[in-house]
Specification:
- It is a single chain.
- By secondary structure, the chain is of the alpha+beta class.
- The protein has two domains: 179 residues, Alpha-Beta Plaits, CATH 3.30.70.270; 163 residues, DNA polymerase, Y-family, little finger domain (Dna Ligase, domain 1).
- It contains 16 helices and 16 strands.
- Strand 11 and strand 12 form a beta hairpin.
- 37% of the residues are buried.
- Its EC number is 2.7.7.7.
Length: 455
């Protein structure tokens, strides 16, 4: 992470043009972009760990990690406190590695229902400033204050600091807040200084703060993209901003031009309001999926089928909750020997959200591609439904009407109602009981789904 700190006191409303030479590239303020927008990005620091410490005073000030269940082979660090971070503990490493670094480490299991409640409480604070609040995961939100501040004399940084203080006072959690005229730079600002900081990325300082940072610090520049850019001599955000559009199109396709616009501060993406009735922001959902690392290697067809149906249950239930049908079913398979993965998919003649049909198609894909024996053990599986259409969209009917399809849809609706009232494990399919290690798993509850797509 870049180590520079923001020292400018000008607000993002000061949009005077600047022209500087950066590595031979002469550029001014982003052309055609409204630089009077005021966008905040609020990121709750060490979210899971902070919530646990806020809920349990005895855990405050001690090295703490929220960790997965070791007995089900999910024993990794999901979140760490500041004290654990100071001892060298890293998110994603195995719990045994974390304990070796920090002998006094306290490990607590995740409580997703509590984290969702704190996420909602945080949004409740944001809503007191504007209705334009867009979640980016449970612990992050963009907040558009442009219209709200147009009716006020308050400065954006003052509002950001007030929100930061209220999060500490009312929730017991700290946040890092970035302030800028676009969503990408606002997120960069919240990532730049952690924890408990407010950073402004302005038209006057973005070339000093953003352009000098490694290109991997920019939103959506991942490991593979960073490697491609490096092979073309693009190592900083400034390099990306000044790179030839033709080069980027050739190396990365259309996304290369999008990333170049991000680097130049030309992101005009609006903050999309949160819809609490759908538990997601107003964007096009492209797929629903669920995957799981099995508590043991999968070495027989019975265990594989149990897991496939368990995952398909979650996927189909989410489809129905969001009022979608899917016409493409895909699976992901992870090998237990070398942890390599691959995927397969099939397209249905008619979109569906019935659990039985999605599970059957996923099972057919798996059984057609895997021997499912001890010589070819599998570590994990994934089921995904895509090619979505709304449930109220008209469907072409077959001449021979399938009455059983309507019966299956009604059955799924009844099961969904029972699970809403009594929990997801109140009723299970017989095939899911074939692997005893899966009996206590609730993959829908324990795999939190939240909007993370940007486009």
């Amino acid at each position: 992470m870049a180590t520079a700190t923001a020292t400018a006191t000008a607000t993002v409303a000061d949009a005077g043009a600047i022209y500087e030479t950066f590595g031979g590239c002469v550029i001014g303020s982003p052309g055609g972009i409204d630089m009077h927008r005021v966008i905040l990005h609020s990121d709750m620091n060490a979210f899971y760990a902070s919530v646990e410490q806020a809920e349990r005073p005895e855990l405050r000030g001690v090295p703490l990690v929220v960790g997965g269940h070791e007995e089900t082979r999910h024993g990794i660090v999901l979140a760490k406190s500041a004290q654990a971070k100071a001892a060298g503990v890293k998110t994603g490493e195995a719990l045994w590695e974390a304990r070796a670094k920090c002998p006094g480490l306290v490990v607590v299991p995740p409580r997703y229902d509590v984290y969702q409640r704190y996420s909602a409480l945080a949004r409740r604070i944001y809503y007191q400033y504007t209705d334009l609040v867009e979640p980016f995961g449970l612990d992050e939100c963009w907040i558009d204050l442009t219209g709200a501040l147009a009716l006020s004399t308050r400065a954006p940084l003052d509002v950001a600091r007030e929100i930061s203080q209220r999060m500490k006072d009312e929730l017991g959690c700290t946040v890092s807040v970035g302030v800028s005229w676009n969503k990408v730079f606002a997120k960069f600002g919240s990532d730049l200084r952690k924890p408990d900081a407010v950073t402004a990325i302005t038209p006057e300082n973005y070339q000093q703060l953003v352009w000098k940072a490694p290109v991997g610090e920019l939103l959506y520049v991942g490991r593979a993209t960073r490697a491609k850019l490096h092979s073309s001599g693009v190592d900083t955000v400034g390099d990306l901003a000044c790179a030839s559009p033709e080069l980027l199109r050739r190396r990365l396709g259309k996304v290369g031009l999008v990333l170049r616009a991000f680097a130049r501060g030309e992101d005009a993406t609006p903050v999309k309001p949160f819809d609490p009735t759908r538990n997601e922001v107003d964007r096009t959902v492209k797929s629903f999926g669920n995957g799981l690392t099995c508590p043991h290697d999968i070495v027989c067809a019975a265990d594989a089928k149990a897991l496939i149906y368990l995952l398909a249950e979650s996927v189909a239930q989410r489809l129905r909750e969001a009022r979608f049908r899917a016409s493409t079913v895909s699976i992901g398979v992870r090998d237990a020997h070398d942890l390599t993965s691959y995927g397969r998919q099939t397209t249905l003649p008619r979109a569906t959200n019935t659990t039985g049909q999605i599970a059957r198609m996923a099972w057919e894909l798996l059984s057609a591609n895997e021997p499912l024996d001890e010589e070819h053990p599998l570590r994990g599986l994934h089921v995904r439904a895509s090619n979505l259409e709304p449930m109220d969209a008209p469907q072409q009917l077959d001449l021979g009407f399938d009455a059983r399809r309507r019966v299956l849809e009604d059955l799924d609706e009844t099961i969904d109602d029972l699970r809403r009232r009594f929990g997801n494990t109140c009723i299970q399919r017989g095939v899911e009981l074939m692997d005893e290690s899966l009996l206590d798993l609730d993959v829908k509850r324990d795999n939190v789904v939240h909007p993370v797509g940007y486009f």
